[in-house]
Amino acid sequence: MIVVLKQNPNQSQLESLITWLKEKGIQVHTSLGASRMILGLVGDTSALDIDLIAALDIVEDVKRVQEPYKNANRKFHPEDTVIPVGNTQIGGGTLTLMAGPCSVETEEQIVAVAKAVKASGATLLRGGAFKPRTSPYAFQGLGAQGLDLLKIARQETGLPIVTEIMDAAQLPLFDEVDVIQVGARNMQNFNLLKLLGTLDKPIMIKRGMSSTYEELLMSAEYVMAGGNNKVILCERGIRTFETYTRNTLDLAAIPALRHLTHLPIIIDPSHATGKSALVAPLATAAVAGGADGLLIEVHNDPPHALCDGPQSLRPEVFDKLAKNLLSLHEFMKTQEAL
Amino acid sequence: MIVVLKQNPNQSQLESLITWLKEKGIQVHTSLGASRMILGLVGDTSALDIDLIAALDIVEDVKRVQEPYKNANRKFHPEDTVIPVGNTQIGGGTLTLMAGPCSVETEEQIVAVAKAVKASGATLLRGGAFKPRTSPYAFQGLGAQGLDLLKIARQETGLPIVTEIMDAAQLPLFDEVDVIQVGARNMQNFNLLKLLGTLDKPIMIKRGMSSTYEELLMSAEYVMAGGNNKVILCERGIRTFETYTRNTLDLAAIPALRHLTHLPIIIDPSHATGKSALVAPLATAAVAGGADGLLIEVHNDPPHALCDGPQSLRPEVFDKLAKNLLSLHEFMKTQEAL
Amino acid sequence: MIVVLKQNPNQSQLESLITWLKEKGIQVHTSLGASRMILGLVGDTSALDIDLIAALDIVEDVKRVQEPYKNANRKFHPEDTVIPVGNTQIGGGTLTLMAGPCSVETEEQIVAVAKAVKASGATLLRGGAFKPRTSPYAFQGLGAQGLDLLKIARQETGLPIVTEIMDAAQLPLFDEVDVIQVGARNMQNFNLLKLLGTLDKPIMIKRGMSSTYEELLMSAEYVMAGGNNKVILCERGIRTFETYTRNTLDLAAIPALRHLTHLPIIIDPSHATGKSALVAPLATAAVAGGADGLLIEVHNDPPHALCDGPQSLRPEVFDKLAKNLLSLHEFMKTQEAL
Amino acid sequence: MIVVLKQNPNQSQLESLITWLKEKGIQVHTSLGASRMILGLVGDTSALDIDLIAALDIVEDVKRVQEPYKNANRKFHPEDTVIPVGNTQIGGGTLTLMAGPCSVETEEQIVAVAKAVKASGATLLRGGAFKPRTSPYAFQGLGAQGLDLLKIARQETGLPIVTEIMDAAQLPLFDEVDVIQVGARNMQNFNLLKLLGTLDKPIMIKRGMSSTYEELLMSAEYVMAGGNNKVILCERGIRTFETYTRNTLDLAAIPALRHLTHLPIIIDPSHATGKSALVAPLATAAVAGGADGLLIEVHNDPPHALCDGPQSLRPEVFDKLAKNLLSLHEFMKTQEAL
Q1: In this structure, are residues C232 and C80 in contact, taking their beta carbons and an 8 Å threshold?
Q2: How far is C42 from chain B (nearest CA, A)?
Q3: Which of B146, B265, C257, D290 could form a disulfide with B142 if both were Cys (CB 3.0 to 4.6 A apart)?
């Protein structure tokens, strides 16, 4: 961490700051320029509160040199994390396809979709039982019953299930869930993250709509600080000024997070775009860009239904897409390393 | 709600859509242009899921004409909501000054700050007991003990207290809190909002970092749909590309929300800017712009302390600011209505 | 275009509006709901100023149904535009690789890079002669001399050249340039766009840092309205809150623009990310996602040079990347259409 | 400037970097920590290209300590700049009210508006002759004729005129214009800025829709580097995700720019919001927040006209607003300094 002091700092405040830092085990290197002094702080600065130091009268600016996350940091854990789930794994060269409906509706629906996506090559079944909805008047999901239907679908197909938790109080219901998803709106629900850190179960954290890579990794750090290292990151689009798509999918997250962390990276093109016609091109781009997997909405579309999201693919479209993606994933292994 | 159909829509799908809408009590007016048909939906469309209709094959676009919120909507509740708290009120021409430290630290600190801000004209005491922190390694607040210290400060000064809840499980601890604050990161923690809707206590909801006015009002609607109409809105800056300030304070929220809703509007210039030097000018602008009140960080700064945020004002600065703000608020009443 | 009227509109103002619209050749369909009236405007509404109508006292809201661009609109021009340049073409199934240094520095440099990138498979040579720089104190490019050096490099390699114009007054110098680039900061320099519309030469328009797809297409429309249909669109990242990358590359632009327009779409991963390590994964993603080509910075890095941008690739890295991209482009043709 | 090196940097590259910096007159202070070395660069670093240094293999990160602008920097010019215009001045405690129509339409219109706003207290007349329009099919302004009409209105009222230049080629027409405005879309039209730097005439630069404070000041620096110090800054809203307002007015720009620069600061609430009902509250907030002046759209609204922007005020509304603002400006002088 680098502390840039104001010109002519008060000497007693400066000594007080240096003493305080040394008490915390930080080495302080001073560098005196023509116009101002710079302090280089060496040691474990991850517990230092950058805002507190910046607040001091004598300080002009504070800049981090090291990332504030440790467990999630590739520098301290160079090997990719691979997370076993059921008979499959996430990360480590596998292409994980998580597919299924936005909401679980009926046993018939979820079992049919599960069978279809399994046949197409999906390795996990996704489906929402508790649904975060902007409006209190919109359908909020089947709740516990939805979780039961997901388990039936798992029993019928063998596909592990991934589904979203919305509140710490729901945790007992998630005992048999294979991967617990933390939604974008809960990415900084720190109490929930702490609780999930006490489990021995994969947790997939979706990036918040206006969260930086570093904030996403700090949320992973919350879970990992509790002892649970089975964290999966999911990019699902960020909020920008562009309104044609629901969000702006940030595929630079793949190589950027790959550099910063060892955790697996999943891309959700369905929520990112909100338009089914954009899902396939962006899923394809994500696989070519090096994603560990995809989260894709698939819905069987009985002709009388009026409850499908505009971003869902029909099973027959997903079938072609999944086959394309799996062959592309194989092809990518033949490309020369740069 | 207006539904724009694609050219040459499938007739049986169109009839199916119209039938479905009529079953929901919606009147459908068709308008046939040269190139495409438009459906005008009349009735209570707030429960219709705009995404579901947009997903239909025959639909090109759906546009809302009416706001999706009812209880929070000024159209259905033209009078300003006034919320009594202790011996004061929020809204209705009062200038509410909520002041106090970011975090409660000690009894001495919180009582001293409470006395100081009361003497300066503050009408509520703010202070954090549970602190949402980006890093798991940062100070997380005193928790239940912090709430006890706030109550002591209230007893000493008579100032009602406003403090943040982070999780539904903490609710029993908030029984004696006067105003419960929902932080920006929890603005769409829908389960928490539902729970707070069952109380008879003022709830102050902070706008999420990337939330629109409409989304803020939908979060208010979650609380109000449960029967609790004592909702206060707080603008605290949105996330933009500008990094000089921590967030970008959006003061257009004052007249915009005033037009859309009857709920009181509080401005938080401290969190919005993250810089104490910007707090006073923006607090002043907010009062002139018509805010119902301000949320301002004030910290007594004993020379040995290293734990104040860069956006906090010292009590002596707040004292001058509060007096300026109160006299400005009086002056504004003398201006001619436009 | 749909005009939503306020409740109980003034009748004479309403008649005045309808008369005015009819005089412009617009048919007006009225749809009277329970609470408000809606006007459906049919005809060529592209010349109507949506803001002017929205300003009327009797109007609550105006919503477009049709896009405001015609020449750039795929609806009126379903076939992909293919633009011949030198011995190659842009669009129509070709993968265009535009490569070269950010700035032209010396004849040796530009000729060496041109030869290298041609050998690797590049089809155009890029290089900046006039450089838009945030600081007046930074190197502003070689200007006219830089254009001369580019022409020498073209003569040596046969590669057509693409380079940026910054001002209408520079146009005479661009006579022999093969493709004129309009930079992101000039995307809405409407006088420049009009002037370029009078040429018979390909114009590549970069999306502005905070411009929507529609605004980009309206800038293309400026050029095309003048009679020059040889327009190429370039996505180069938009400005968001994320600071790890210089901009956020929006790859959804590929399928979204493909749907909206018939013009070729080029992706610039170098400027988008500002980091050379992110260029290859995003270039790869862009090809898989369906881009017509890439704009990539390549710089030969003599050991004594201190003037390379952090986003440039060395020729040997570009060589591997280009071969990977070309083989991926071939592979993509074997994937099943969805 | 601080250069953070990677671990174990190549020694010969490091020496080469240090030698190169010293040749440029920069002193280099090295600070060796436990894990990495930091270079503190002292001297005039404004001409160093931060990107070039960041591109070096041995460099992990580069951070500026000093602002890259000199002429616009308050540190080197502590006194507020005051710019005389006609019989008035901009800055220095004056409240400047620039008012007038978005577009000049007819002599009657512009003279009538000019007389009205002068009577209300406006000190400059604004009006657009050349109009930047997103659509090539929209009205582009009267051009040179519009400038002539503005001069007639000036002759009739004595109000100096401020109007927008769109292109360097138009400059000869602006000889008799009192204040030349550079629009938000041209804020980084560097050739135009350089040309305006050669004049002895006030230049008002509007902040780009996605430009930072620093970028705005660098654009001012372009003009000032040419010798023209009469630069006025104008905040007119930035582009964010919020769509209720056309842009998000960033009033923190007032105290932030006040701290960073000595140049006068004008606020444009009309373009920022795009809604006339929001103009008065935000204009009021801006005056209380310390702005040097306002740019407000005023249009006389003959009943048969259909060409007024939704953000324009009618003269009678502006009259009340201007009186309110002027009395508020007087009141603010009575407030105690903090």
Answers
A1: no
A2: 6
A3: B146
